[in-house]
């Protein structure tokens, strides 16, 4: 079966690699000019994401891409009092892996490199504009006129998916979460942290991890009205950083220390997630990754779910059935899990929005919320893709 993957991001590159590993042809059409320097800040690859990479024979990718292990989270209120923790000390024992913090662009570049080295063909500068499906094939047309035909088309083109819009014009669009996220990595004289440090600051949520005198930090700025597309591109960095410093000036000392050292943030991203879609596939087309089920970054699960999707779909695509039957199997496996994690992310995001008197209630109930969330976290981290032995390291 000839499979055309639209979007060579984290899901698309991993799928291309997996298809080649199983001996199939893999063709990727990517809108960007290259897979290098694709931007973004850093992300957390959870134990389930690390395990899914291992199942595909890509277990060394997090380390090669410069990742470092970070388990568990400590939560503090605006006065610096520790109000809860998510213990990660047993992650290795429970899940067979620890989570990893790494730069998104490096993870992406490494996955795309591996796919190309395995024989996948990438067409860069190829932005999908039309998609026609027939009873026995699908035809994709790209800006500039390139046209490619395949037996099946996989929409791995991210949260603003063109495949989704062309095939399901009435499907819901991404839903704004009321938060603008920004962050970077910054040299700073602070000791290494064991896990992620999360602060419900006076006016905004702030998180960081320190490794080898570099702080990987982010702040979640509450903003009720949805920014217009492009409004936060090309910000004046001096003015933007000054406003972030002001927002956190009365928060515990480590936060102003990091922000004084930081010259810029790598971007300002309004946060979205995807409402539930009725279906992820037709006879010839199937969505994966953020195109199907973008989750709030608050879950730390977006990249991990994209990698799981790629591993599970590659498993189904070996079944020698019709594309529809294989897509059906894939969606039945994946939809309930992804939708649960999207819901979970929305609940976490709501707790990050600062609201005066509500904060005291949140501080008092956070431990209980995390205990309840502990079950969800165990389910997220404990997932194994098909064909993966439980004790695979
Ligand atoms: C600020 C921020 C922080 C995050 N933090 C985390 C985290 O801590 N942990 C975590 O797991 N995840 C995190 N994520 C989410 C994570 O980056 C994504 O969920 C993950 O990359 C999904 O992979 P994907 O391949 O589905 O989409 P993407 O990586 O977005 O890839 C989509 C690809 O499709 C291409 N494309 C788009 N349109 C077209 C078109 N018309 N034609 C051809 N190609 C096209 C794009 O150029 C891109 O390369 C974060 C995201 C953000 C924004």
Automatic annotation (TrEMBL):
Gene Ontology molecular-function annotations: monooxygenase activity
Segments forming domain FAD-binding: 2-344
Keyword match Isomerase: no
InterPro entries per the UniProt record, alphabetical: FAD-bd (IPR002938), FAD-dep_Monooxygenase_BioMet (IPR050493), FAD/NAD-bd_sf (IPR036188)
Superkingdom of this protein's organism: Bacteria
Keyword terms of this UniProt record: Monooxygenase, Oxidoreductase
Protein name, as recorded: FAD-dependent monooxygenase
């Amino acid at each position: 079966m000839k499979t055309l993957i639209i979007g060579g991001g984290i899901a698309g590159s991993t799928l291309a690699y997996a298809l080649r590993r199983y001996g199939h042809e893999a063709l990727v059409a990517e809108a960007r000019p290259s897979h290098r320097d694709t931007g973004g800040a850093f992300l957390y690859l959870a134990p389930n994401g690390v395990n899914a990479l291992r199942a595909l024979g890509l277990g060394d990718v997090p380390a090669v891409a410069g990742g470092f292990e970070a388990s568990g989270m400590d939560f503090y209120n605006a006065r610096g009092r520790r109000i809860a923790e998510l213990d990660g000390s047993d992650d290795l024992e429970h899940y067979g892996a620890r989570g990893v913090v790494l730069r998104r662009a490096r993870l992406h570049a490494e996955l795309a490199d591996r796919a190309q080295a395995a024989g996948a063909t990438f067409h860069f500068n190829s932005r999908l504009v039309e998609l026609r499906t027939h009873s026995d094939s699908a035809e994709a047309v790209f800006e500039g006129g390139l046209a490619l035909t395949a037996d099946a088309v996989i929409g791995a083109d991210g949260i603003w998916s063109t495949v989704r819009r062309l095939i399901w014009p009435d499907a819901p669009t991404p839903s704004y979460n009321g938060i603008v996220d920004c962050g970077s990595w910054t040299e700073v004289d602070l000791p290494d942290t064991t896990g992620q440090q999360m602060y419900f600051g006076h006016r905004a949520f702030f998180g960081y991890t320190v490794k080898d005198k570099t702080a990987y930090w982010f702040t979640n700025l509450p903003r009720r009205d949805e920014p217009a597309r492009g409004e936060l591109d090309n910000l004046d960095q001096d003015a933007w950083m000054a406003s972030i410093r002001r927002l956190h000036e009365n928060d515990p000392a480590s936060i102003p220390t990091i922000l004084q050292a930081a010259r810029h943030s790598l971007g300002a991203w309004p946060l979205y997630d995807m409402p539930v879609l009725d279906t992820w596939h037709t006879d010839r087309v199937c969505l994966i990754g953020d195109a199907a089920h973008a989750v709030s970054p608050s879950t730390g699960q977006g990249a991990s779910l994209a990698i799981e999707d790629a591993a599970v779909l590659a498993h189904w695509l070996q079944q020698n059935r019709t594309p529809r039957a294989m897509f059906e199997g894939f969606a039945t496996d994946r939809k309930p899990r992804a939708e649960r994690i999207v819901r979970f992310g929305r609940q976490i995001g709501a707790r990050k929005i600062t609201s005066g008197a509500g904060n005291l209630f949140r501080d008092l109930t956070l431990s209980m919320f995390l205990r309840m969330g502990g079950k969800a976290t165990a389910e997220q981290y404990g997932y194994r893709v098909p064909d993966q032995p439980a004790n695979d390291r």
